[in-house]
Design brief:
binds adenosine-5'-triphosphate; single chain; five-stranded parallel beta sheet; alpha/beta; Arc Repressor Mutant, subunit A; binds magnesium ion; about 850 residues; Rossmann fold
Length: about 850
């Protein structure tokens, strides 16, 4: 990756400077100032390139530390040898630097100019004989003549800022040629503070060490940089010369950041801290009256110092800080976590209860990896059964379901009292169910421990997990019954949340949204106060969003997602994948297809890299991704994801059935196999009905209606009275209007969809309206409906559904003919088409023959060309 990186995020700055120095009547000069590596030289080079392309003469002069000791050193190769009179030499230099015509000269790193060269630059600016661009490093001493250039406002000054997260992400994506995972983008930005030079070093190094890798089409970084010697030197240079006592200050912060100023002073010395501040190595921020937080001025300072810190030194420093902190009150959860980690990293013996408490705090703060480290340490220090259970829950939150169930399985084997076995087996069954996606295994775990539960009288946890099992396996009514039974007696937080999940899922599927909301609030309240259940709000987010999407309460879905994903920023493991899924799902529901594809691809890659055992989530993620591709009209991508889905999808796990079926339906629709698409959606609707999942039935029937199925009206009309939410009402209106080919009613249905946010369905209903108007000869209304459809489709970003395709294509074929010709455009033979549509080859040939007659063509090539194939 040696080539020049494409200029990114500097459009405004480039325009500003080029307008000033490379256009007629300009101000003749600009100074570009900024921190090391921020991109000053690059910007100046780009300005010169524009000037050259505009026919101007350009010259590049680089001032350097070594040339500084020679008078006129920066210009020695331009002006050659001159006499001893300095005034004379300056004049000669100036005339050598002033060619005929318009010219621009750039002096890079002008702060390094010797005094005489600086005088030449000053004179060039004053006399306006040539346009000048200077770059200087801010904060560095510069010759007076250079400083005067901007202080006296002889030229404009631009203070170049570091790149934002989004700009950094765009830049890295351009360089790597693919999507960058959002957590990776933020990680690289945080570490580099948006400094392009550091970003470059980090990316080059991490890619060649294969720590920044392309996983399933998305570049993901493992977040643990190894500092290359080059980056090390660059950061060293930035830190400057540092005395040993100041290095102590930096090392303390590298190992424990942030730290209160007085603690830092206590473990180092007041003089050293002041010196570090003066050298710009640390930042102080006021936390409260008399309390100031100290952090390192750049995160890379910490990285390079940690890399150099030997184990003994690290243990000594951590022990020193821990001892100092132990003399002060522990104010909040962060303090508890920080202290426990210091103890672990030091030579002090850890205390099991302190570690377990800190682990619970870390869990509540969603610092999962720290939580896992702490809880594991507490188990090693002998914290007992509670700690083991906590460990399993933490591993689950990290997405490491197999390890979690293993920890609990071992625990059950060591002869615990009945009550403990009852609880741990229930936790284990819940993990096996939701993480490993294995309801059968979960059942067996519960059955094996049923005797223990009965003997101990602790039936609650088992009943809660049974409710969850019923919910996952498509039995909403029994799930609700079991959940209510479990919740009617006192229950621990974790299992209360598990039982309430069952309520949220099942009430959602039944379309009882008001009750579902109340249940969700209970979980949120539990999650607020309980570390074991803190992470469950993310799984809740998925269940709740699913219910809100199916019922059409999309604004609520958005609010629910926003509340959650801001907590998961930079959280590793399952949570960040869940957050990406949630964003993708929300975008999908609103028809923001580009965003949906991006987030869902990100979650897919996260799952792949983290090797998480969250099979149910992975399956849903892929199902939504296939739906998004299908709505984009990208049949190939949608089908590839459907195939991937078949390998990931847990068997006998009906909770994911509807979305998997809709994925297949949309993939078929995108491939042009509309009959397949409709029958898949209808089958899914029938399954949902058989299970009593009425809200799911609505969404499936709506989808079939979008594909042009005119048989859904009666069922949807009935469902309006059975389920809550605006979707059933809109879908029912849509189906009735399509059945009677009622254009105005189809437009009204489109408005209904728009009003709750389903823009894809709105576009489809609107397209169907335009087609009906055209068919009935209402050209004017057809055109305006067509225009409304185009607008809606544009809002959905590259929407390409069957209804839209039909609108774009000439109306010469019947539905079946169109379907067969469309499959032929994809290169399928008549035999392939016959197999695909379960028809005989003769029937396919017959349809193609009649289609050719209608279109007035005599060969297959011309026929497929009509639908954009061939
Ligand atoms: N906006 C940008 N887009 C793409 N690459 C950039 C951008 N800005 C800088 N770079 C690249 O980052 C690296 C460092 O930039 P540059 O040398 O311009 O920084 P500088 O501010 O001049 O640093 P110094 O203070 O060390 O002179 C170069 O490889 C440059 O091409
Ligand atoms: Mg430079």
């Amino acid at each position: 990756m040696k080539r020049e990186w494409p200029l990114t995020g500097r459009a405004e700055e480039l325009e500003l400077v080029t307008e000033a120095v490379a256009t007629a009547g300009s101000t003749y000069g600009y100074i570009i100032a900024g921190a090391a590596g921020v991109g000053k030289t690059r910007l100046a080079r780009e300005v010169l390139a524009v000037a050259t392309s505009r026919g101007m003469t350009t010259r590049w002069v680089a001032a350097t530390e070594s040339a500084r000791s020679v008078p006129l050193g920066a210009f020695h190769d331009i002006v050659g040898k001159f006499g001893p009179d300095p005034g004379m030499r300056v004049r000669e230099a100036m005339s050598a630097l002033t060619p005929h015509g318009d010219s621009v000269i750039c002096v890079d790193d002008a702060h390094l100019l010797d005094d005489l060269s600086a005088l030449v630059v000053h004179q060039l600016v004053l006399t306006k004989t040539v346009r000048v661009v200077l770059t200087i490093r801010s904060g560095m001493p510069a010759p007076d003549a250079v400083t005067a250039v901007w202080k006296d406002r002889l030229v404009e000054r631009l203070d170049l800022q570091t790149l934002s997260v989004d700009e950094t992400c765009t830049l890295i994506e351009a360089v790597l040629g693919g999507q960058l995972d959002s957590r990776t983008a933020r990680g690289l930005w945080t570490l580099s503070c948006g400094n392009v030079l550091y970003v470059r070093q980090l990316v080059d190094e991490e890619v060649s060490a294969r720590r920044l890798e392309n996983v399933a089409g998305v570049w993901i970084w493992d977040g643990q940089p190894v500092i290359s010697p080059r980056l090390n030197d660059l950061v060293d240079a930035r830190m400057g010369r540092v005395t040993p006592r100041v290095l102590d200050v930096v090392d303390v912060l590298a190992l424990c950041e942030p730290l209160d100023a007085d603690v830092l002073i206590q473990v180092t010395s007041p003089g050293a801290v002041e010196e570090a501040e003066t050298q710009g190595l640390i930042d102080l921020t006021a936390k409260a009256k008399h309390i100031r937080h100290v952090t390192l001025a750049h995160p890379l300072f910490g990285e390079i110092r940690r890399a150099r810190c030997g184990a003994l030194r690290k243990a000594r420093i951590c022990g020193h800080i821990a001892t100092e902190l132990a003399t002060r009150p522990c104010v909040d959860m962060r303090d508890a976590v920080q202290r426990a980690i210091l103890v672990l990293d030091s030579d002090i013996d850890p205390e099991a209860t302190q570690l377990l408490h800190a682990a619970r705090c870390a869990m509540q703060l969603l610092d999962l990896e720290l939580a896992e480290r702490l809880v594991r340490a507490s188990v090693c220090a002998g914290a007992g059964v509670k700690a083991q259970t906590q460990w399993a829950i933490t591993l689950t939150t990290l997405g490491r379901g197999s390890e979690a169930q293993q920890v609990l399985a071992e625990l059950e084997g060591i002869g615990l009292p009945d009550a403990d076995i009852a609880t741990t087996s229930a936790v284990r069954a819940a993990i096996v169910l939701w993480m490993l996606g294995d309801p059968g295994f979960a059942q067996r775990i519960l059955a094996a421990a049923a005797g223990n539960a009965k003997r101990s009288g602790a039936m609650g946890p088992h009943t809660a997990v049974r409710a969850s099992l019923s919910a996952a396996t498509g039995n909403p009514s029994s799930a609700i019954q079991a959940a209510k039974a479990a919740l009617s007696k006192p229950l621990d937080d974790f299992h209360s949340a598990i039982a309430t999940f069952a309520l949220v899922i099942s009430l959602g599927e039944l379309g009882r949204i008001r009750e579902m909301r109340a249940a969700a609030d209970v979980i949120l309240e539990i999650a607020q106060r309980s570390p074991e259940a803190a992470q469950l709000k993310f799984a809740l987010g998925q269940f709740q969003s699913a219910a809100l999407r199916t019922s059409g309460n999309l604004d609520d879905m958005l609010r629910c997602g926003e509340r959650l994903w801001q907590h998961t920023v930079d959280t590793p493991g399952n949570l960040s994948a869940l957050a990406a899924m949630l964003r993708g799902h929300t975008d999908l529901a609103f028809g923001r297809l580009t965003g949906a594809v991006r987030w869902l691809r990100e979650a897919r890659a996260e799952y792949a890299i983290e090797r998480l055992h969250a099979r149910a989530w992975r399956a849903l993620n892929l199902a939504w991704l296939a739906q998004a591709y299908g709505k984009n009209g990208d049949g190939e991508a949608a089908s590839a994801v459907v195939t991937e889905l078949a390998n990931v999808r847990p068997a006998d796990f009906p909770y994911v059935d509807m979305d998997c079926a809709l994925a297949e339906a949309w993939a078929s629709a995108a491939e042009g196999a509309l009959h397949d698409a409709i029958s898949t959606a209808q089958c899914a609707a029938d399954t949902a009905r058989a299970r009593g999942q009425l809200a799911n039935e609505v969404l499936c029937l709506q989808t079939a209606t979008q594909f042009g199925d005119i048989s859904t009206a009666q069922r949807l009309a009935k469902l309006v009275n059975e389920v809550d939410g605006p979707r059933a009402v809109a879908a029912s209106a849509h189906a009735a209007a399509l059945k009677t080919a009622d254009g105005p009613a189809l437009l009204r249905a489109a408005h209904q969809y728009t009003s709750f946010g389903d823009r894809v369905a709105a576009a489809d209903a609107s397209a169907q309206a335009a087609l009906r108007f055209a068919a009935s000869g209402h050209r004017g209304t057809a055109l305006s409906a067509h225009a409304a459809t185009v607008r809606l489709a544009a809002e959905c970003q590259c929407l390409h559904t069957p209804a839209l395709r039909e609108l774009e294509e000439p109306i010469i074929f019947t539905g079946r003919q169109r379907e067969i010709v469309r499959l032929a455009t994809q290169g399928l033979t008549n035999r392939d088409i016959a197999q695909r549509l379960v028809l005989s080859v003769r029937t396919v040939e017959g349809h193609l023959y009649r289609a050719s007659q209608r279109a007035g063509v005599t060969n297959r090539e011309d026929l497929v060309a009509i639908l954009g194939g061939g």
